[in-house]
Amino acid sequence: MKSAKENGAKIHPDMEEEFFGGDNQEEEGDMPIELNTPEDYANYEPQVLQAIDWLMKTPVNAEPEDRKAINGFLFEWISGSPTVSIELSEKIVTYMDHPDCLLIFLGGYTKYAIENNDGKNKFRGNLSGTLSVIEFYKANKKELGKIKPIEKLIKLKKKNKLEDFIKKNSK
Predict the structure, then answer these.
(1) CA dihedral for 139, 130, 55, 24, sign (positive or negative)
(2) Measuring CA to CA, which residue among 130, 113, 40, 26 is closest to residue 77?
(3) How far apart are CA 34 and CA 17, in angstroms?
(4) Over the Cα atoms of the chain, what is R_g?
(5) Which pTM was predicted?
(6) How far apart are the first and last CA of the chain?
(7) pLDDT in tens, 35-89
(8) CA distance linking residue 83 with residue 38, whole number of Å
(9) pLDDT band with cut points at 50, 70 and 90 for residue 5
(10) 20 near 72, Cβ under 8 Å?
(11) How many CA atoms lie within 13 A of 6 on its CB side?
């Protein structure tokens, strides 16, 4: 498998360790994932959507080995996708030190892009990613602990100001 890193993607060492566990070797018996051409990425879109749904519905502390493998697959796919382009805004994604929430954001953004064939709409992608994080955080708050930046996003949503905030910071 040619990794996103080999294709030139810049991956923070902490994120690489969190998502890939350092060695990024497939389990014995796993089918190798080929992500070399645009067609390869398109062929994996159904699995990407399933993986995002699984991460959203599975408690953050359940099935840690599966979560780690799925995180790695998603991060690999997102990092190299020719159709989904995510530019993280530090004003929106203010919880980058929480890898599970960051990957949920990336997943929500990606899910919007795939389902709507719209990988370039920063506002809709950021909004979908943020709404996914809010949903995930609420479902896993006990395990994640209080994350103030996400609490701020929840307050903006309650006040019906989240879309304006996202729109202002998606440029």
Answers:
(1) negative
(2) 40
(3) 21
(4) 16
(5) 0.83
(6) 34
(7) 999 999 999 999 999 999 999 999 999 999 999 999 999 999 999 999 999 989 9
(8) 8
(9) very low
(10) yes
(11) 8
Q: Give 35: exposed, middle or buried? Use CB within 10 Å, 0-12, 13-18, 19+.
A: buried
Query: Encoding tokens for residue 147?
Result: 């994350």
Contact present, 96 and 147 (Cβ < 8 Å): no
Number of helices (H), then strands (E), belonging to the chain: the values are 8, 0
Number of other CB atoms surrounding residue 81 within 10 Å: 22
Q: What is the dihedral of CA 105, 71, 16, 41, to 10 degrees?
A: -90
Q: What angle do CA 147, 99, 50 make, to 5 degrees?
A: 110
Per the structure block, which two tokens stand in for 131? 């709404």
Structural element, H or E, at residue 166: helix 162-169
- Supply 97's token pair: 């030190």
Q: Smallest Cα–Cα separation from 153: which of 125, 128, 124, 133?
A: 133
What CA–CA distance (Å, rounded) separates 7 from 30?
23
Q: 20 is written with which tokens?
A: 């890939």
- The CA-based dihedral angle spanning residues 95, 65, 9, 125, taken in that order and rounded to the nearest 10 degrees: -50
**Range name among 6-15, 47-56, 143-152 with the lowest pLDDT average:** 6-15
